[in-house]
Write a structure and sequence with these properties.
heterodimer; A: alpha/beta; 17% strand; globular; disordered C terminus; B: alpha/beta; nine-stranded mixed β-sheet; two-stranded antiparallel sheet; 13 helices; 13 strands; 18% strand
Chain lengths: 442, 380
């Protein structure tokens, strides 16, 4: 708390025009953001992940979510803050954190001394996490906390709302006579048994309501205490006609996404060693691509439309995250040329240096109007969009009809195939909600 | 709400009124998470007129629940750091980032005959070594689903280990083994018998060889017969009389996998033990997928499945681990074991590689051979 500037208590106390007029002094960007250790990524995020806000990193297994979070934790530690790390599935690899800290610590410092500023908590169930954030106690988080990491949120929700259970079986069973005894599961979490008081209250509506409540608590804690909250998320599959199974962040409801100020999607891609300026020190296996879906509260893309979002190439080493030098402008890393400044994209803070070869002149963030809206409903693209969309939208409490635009392309060419199952290469991959497809299940 | 007992077994109602309320709430289709996030008034409305509990009772109950969860979190904060189990080969240990860690689930995936089981068998013995030799000094459990435990090889390994470490501890007597040939048995054993065994004998390693076998059999059989109802022990609620379609099965399998991983992980954390599972592979059908979208499952799975990372290397023998992304999301680490013809020498060789792991650096592939005393890295 002492480290945070006084204004962080009341974040919205100045008017927007005032905020725009005040170029943030360089010191504030130190206190105001936690660096990712990649200049390019920091630039795309306008300085890193902001304190007082909630950020999210999603990605498939092994994409480097935990490594990126550890790097930010190391940076928070090195700048004198404390870190709370909340494990939900696997323990924090402390030795890797130590090597990331020691890579940047002063030589006379003992990197292990920083570990006393890390509080590791376990939240083995969603209830634990909710108790932590929705029923706050004075000892949590500790006084000088700069960063709270939740690694990861998707496992908790998967365990509390088992995949396929709510979406599939309940919905189906609601449409036909109940099998006697079919609902009397000993562990029937949320199954709409005879005692279900409210017909609309399925497990999935509760899930989205809890996601929204949790996001509200996270945002309010972040704002009140001036700390950054970083939530790691996993990926799930959705079947899109024409594209097959596509990965999407597992937790993505409009209200959840709305609460996030920064949203990153880390993944891998083919890259030729010849594109690297220093191939010898940059093994391909360490290269990751980070799509900036949302930076500084401005959406550049959604989970369904990533192509307008800037992509930053980083390298994950034992010592932490680094930029990757690229020989030439790659299509992925350079945004479309556009007018230099706009109201929605303030100039980057002075402390950020650009790598000239990666971002020649134009700002990272395209200022052309976004093609796709920031919010999109949760529902997968389904075969009969009108009927299903309405049904999904109501149940999920979703703003309906906001994905007309970005769904157009995915429908092209998708109409001649069967939509599901048959074209799926590995059917076992897609066992999540994306398979809710009445045409096949009937 | 019936998940309270599994989330917080130690929770007891503080007063008679709370006990009464607890049983009322148990009947509602609410999870503990719902209780914490719903307004007391809302809970009261759901309870209906049958309950005699007031809104204040509910408020007090939820506050007690939250503070019980807080103290559980506090109690968990003092768990020891994860320990590592050695493979008795310095190079492989380094490749694995120190060995196989406790408190999480590690997967060995590969074709049959690639050498996964060699690692699993070896670990059941090295876990018994005293800590200064890289073990935990604790016994192991070996749950097999396909072939029963290979005892001749285990005896051979144990004898070799005893002589090489001059330690008396690695013994086949301290490897508990059981074979479960169907999913129902497997589920019962893991959920009810295993926790007791682990607690009684201070087990340090649980091996499940393999995790996919029973799931595959169960669901493929169900898919083959349309009038036989697919039933798993884990799930009574969806046992409908009608035949279930493929997506329904996959959805249920995803659920079963999450439950299985949750049970194993809870044991791993509670007892600071390692969980190692073997997984099978199937052929990858669409390697020249028309979809080149970066985020397509096909494309991204090249990196987390363990096959096809190098675009030039996507040959005929590309594989994909069973159980898909849902299972991969539940793992802390995946290690691929592969057998093939060496391009240079033309001989058959084995390789091992960390595909992803939270605690180790991934990517480096290392050749290894199976020797009398275990596995040995081939370092040039």
């Amino acid at each position: 708390m002492a480290a945070a500037s006084p204004s962080s208590h009341r974040l919205f106390a100045i008017s927007a025009s005032q905020a725009l007029g005040n170029q943030p002094p360089s010191t504030q960007s130190v206190h105001g953001h936690i660096s990712t250790s990649s200049h390019n990524l920091d630039h795309a995020l306008r300085g890193g992940i902001p304190r007082g806000k909630v950020a999210e990193i999603s990605g498939p297994p092994g994409s480097g979510k935990t490594a990126m979070a550890m790097q930010m934790a190391a940076n928070a530690l090195l700048s004198g803050g404390e870190v709370v790390w909340i494990d939900t599935s696997h323990p924090l690899p402390v030795s890797r954190l130590v090597s990331m800290v020691s890579a940047h610590a002063q030589p006379e410092e003992d990197p292990l001394s920083y570990l006393s500023h890390v509080q590791i908590l376990q939240a083995p169930s969603l209830a634990h996490l909710l108790a932590l954030f929705m029923y706050p106690v004075s000892s949590f988080p500790p006084e000088r906390t700069a960063l709270v990491v939740v690694d990861n949120i998707a496992t908790l929700f998967a365990a509390a709302y088992l995949p396929g259970h709510d979406d599939f079986n309940n919905r189906k069973s609601a449409d036909r006579p109940q099998h006697p005894g079919g609902t009397s599961s000993p562990r029937g979490k949320g199954s709409p048994g005879p005692k279900a008081a409210l017909p609309r209250d399925t497990a999935s509506t509760r899930k989205f309501a809890i996601m929204a409540d949790l996001m509200k608590s996270l945002s309010s804690l972040a704002t009140k205490r001036g700390l950054a909250i970083l939530v790691l998320n996993q990926m799930t599959t959705k079947v899109i006609p024409g594209s097959g199974a596509v990965l999407r962040p597992a937790m993505a409801s409009p209200l959840w996404v709305l609460g996030l100020t920064s949203r990153l999607l880390v993944h891998r891609n083919d890259i030729s060693p010849s594109a690297l300026s220093d191939p010898s020190s940059t093994p391909i296996s360490q290269i990751r691509f980070v799509t900036v879906l949302k930076a500084n509260g401005i959406a550049h893309g959604t989970e369904t439309a990533t192509k307008d979002a800037p992509v930053v190439v980083i390298q994950i080493q034992d010592e932490g995250i680094n930029d990757v030098g690229l020989v030439k402008k790659s299509k992925n890393t350079t945004p479309p040329a556009s007018a230099p400044a706009s109201v929605s994209a303030p100039a980057p803070a002075a402390t950020i240096t650009l790598r000239a070869y990666t971002f020649p002149q134009s700002p990272v963030i395209p200022t052309t109007p976004m093609k796709s809206p920031a919010l999109s409903p949760l529902g997968p693209r389904e075969r009969s969009p009108v009927r299903n969309k309405r049904k999904r939208g109501l149940e999920a409490g979703v703003i309906a009809g906001s994905d007309e635009e970005d769904s157009d392309e995915e429908w092209e060419g998708g109409l001649d195939d069967d939509g599901l199952g048959v074209e799926l290469p590995t059917p076992e991959e897609g066992m999540l909600g994306g398979f809710v497809k009445p045409a096949v299940s009937g | 709400m019936s998940d309270l007992a599994s989330i917080l077994p130690s929770f007891v109602a503080s007063s008679p009124a709370a006990t009464c309320l607890l049983s009322d709430i148990e009947a509602l289709p609410l999870t503990t998470a719902d209780l914490l996030s719903l307004d007391a008034l809302d809970i009261s409305r759901r309870l209906g007129s049958t309950s005699r509990s007031s809104v204040l009772d509910i408020k007090r109950f939820v506050a007690n629940l939250a503070s019980a969860l807080h103290s559980d979190i506090t109690a968990r904060a003092s768990v020891p750091a994860p320990a590592f189990i050695t493979t008795r080969d310095a190079h492989l240990d380094r490749l694995f980032g120190g060995g196989i860690p406790t408190q999480c689930i590690t997967e060995f995936v590969g074709e049959s005959g690639a050498g996964k089981s060699q690692f699993l068998l070896l670990l059941t013995l090295t876990v018994q070594l005293p800590p200064h030799l890289g073990g935990l000094g604790r016994p192991a459990v070996y749950i097999s689903t396909e072939a029963p435990l290979s005892t001749p090889r285990l005896f051979q390994l144990a004898a070799a280990l005893r002589s090489s470490t001059s330690s008396a501890s690695p013994s086949t007597d301290r490897v508990f083994s059981i074979t479960c040939s169907d999913l129902e048995t497997q589920d019962h054993i893991i959920r009810y018998q295993l926790p007791v065994l682990v607690a009684t004998h201070n087990v340090g390693l649980i091996v499940l060889d393999s995790v996919a076998a029973n799931f595959r059999v169960e669901f493929e059989r169900a898919a083959g017969s349309t009038n036989k109802r697919a039933k798993t022990a884990a799930d009574g609620s969806s046992a409908s009389a009608s035949a279930e379609s493929g997506p329904a099965q996959m959805a249920r399998r995803g659920k079963d996998l999450v439950v299985l991983a949750g049970t194993l992980r809870a044991l791993a954390i509670k007892h600071n033990l390692a969980v190692v599972v073997a997984n099978q592979v199937s052929d990858r059908f669409t390697r020249n997928s028309s979809s080149r979208e970066t985020l397509s499952l096909d494309f991204q799975s090249r990196w987390f499945s363990g096959w096809g990372e190098d675009p030039d290397d996507v040959g005929e023998d590309a594989k994909v681990p069973a159980l898909g992304l849902v299972w991969a999301n539940l793992l802390a680490g995946r290690i691929v074991v592969r057998r093939g013809v060496d391009a240079e020498s033309g001989d058959w060789r084995r390789w091992v590689r960390v595909v992803f792991a939270t605690w180790a650096r991934a990517g480096e592939e290392c050749g290894f051979e199976i020797v009398e005393g275990g596995v040995k890295a081939l370092v040039s």
